[in-house]
Please model this.
Amino acid sequence: MPRFFFAVARLIALLPIAVVSFTGPVFDSGRHEALAESSPVDFVVEDLDGSQFVYVVFHALDRDGFCSPPDGAVSLHPVLDMPVDFVIEAGDGVIIETSDGTGAFGRSATGVKTFSTAENAAAGSPVRAFPPLVSGLTDECQAWIRVSQSIPGPLRVLVTVPSDDGAGKIAFLADLERPATVDVTLTFRWSLITWNGADGMTPAAALQGPAGAADITSKVTAMYGWDAATQAWRAYFPAGAGVPGANDLTALRTGSAYWVAISGPGPVIWPIAEGD
Model:
């Protein structure tokens, strides 16, 4: 039985959340035992001063639900201090940091040891840790790398860990999927734009931008669209997003035109993920 205890993966939301898709686990030791469909790998994308950084996080619990066992319990398949290998297989980026303080600039980091999030939180100088995949856990083993991407784009990472029997390894392929974007320039005060993003997207989601892109919600004051069926203008006001009945523009339609107002004074660049 695999050492990992999986639940449906919950993507982290420190900064814009990236959409993650996973292939099935790859076994190179001749094992044919199936794992749960959920992957123990996820991403955290952050933008700082125009630079993009991506944390690739590996989460692990043994099959008894432990990272570091509590008093009186025994972990038969420990995952604490387990070496994890990370390899960037595709996409722009270099590894600049690991959770155990090792590594240099490059496309791979090997032997990154997992740490207990509970023990880490109690440490005098804790390393960065992320919320567990299973909500409510007080302790989880984690290992991560930090990737610097000068050009935001797709990222594929191979994450490899030892198998239970010690005869081989188990590998996970994790893809950070970010669609191609187009930049729309909004000028003070009104701009007429054609929506080329996903059909049916809400104005709120559209203004937040795709994962890893700039959120322009605070810079937009109003959005209007013409409803041909009812022969009426529909409006969305970000400041009134939580007010019942304040907004009746609920979905953007691909190919339709919209008036967008910004607070000014200068232009605002609106990144839009192109629709299918």
